[in-house]
Design brief:
Jelly Rolls, mainly beta
Length: about 325
Amino acid sequence: MEGREEACRRNAVSMDAFSSSSSCSHRRRAYSSASARIANSGLSPGVSWRSIHLLFAVVVFGGPAQQALASNCDRASSSLVGDLESNPKVVKAGKGSSVWRFSPIKEDFTIVVTPTNVTMDPDMRLFTATSADGDGCKPSLSSQEIGSDYMLVDSSLAKNSSATWFFLMIACRDVACEYHLAFSKIQKDDWQELKAGEDKSGIAYHGNPSHFVFECDEECRRGITAGSNERVTFSAWPRDASSAEHITLLVRKGSIPTTDSQQHLQATRGWFSGEVVSTVIEPATYYITVLKRHSMTPIPFVLSVKLPQTLEKLQLGKPTFGSVA
């Protein structure tokens, strides 16, 4: 445990300079509220595997940070990603906690880190360095989720911060942690339209999230009763009910979701390694991303969106997945 706490102190930034969602005691979705609430609740280990995971995260990342921000932006000890400006996608293989550096580009792009198996859980933190900072840097973004992490880097970030370099810190709880790292520019045709009551099939690949968009149109709005709490339900499931692989369902109203705890609606684990998001429906555009949680094996999946008035079609001999809100 002392070794893990020391690793945390080496990798973490000062509590004053970094928000709680990005510090050692960061918040993590894991089908519950913030980790701070779990840590303070008095729950003993063994309540459930979800609680154990959250409490473990607090123990491993919970010590006071003593090292200056400059340690996260050390050009000599970081690895150069490559030319993101002229390449639509750049992939790297990593092992253990490490720092990657790259130059800002003029377009929005995403970063996905996928662990090679279910026992590994890397986290991402992005720092910006400017000429005014000298050797120092500033924390900008954080994505910490069970399994894969997904980060959106808006082009305005570099412009507003006058960044000369980005430094991406990958923090592993296990020194043997191995992962796939993918940097991709956002393409307009990446987003598939999803209609209420429709089942959309896809394949989740490591480093390549699947994107969908659902518009609450006139038909959708007619089903909304003023003052009611009617809900819309998004569900994603592996097509193979016996699959041990897991997917992550990210849904956000009005903006692209990420694995930052503040940038997606809370999901609930469903049967057969699926996930469900249910929320009070509003006239809005919902953005949905399906992310492969771990390993390099592709996962065929089904994504659906259901409104209160949606009629479910059942087929003999074929399982139908859904949820009751």
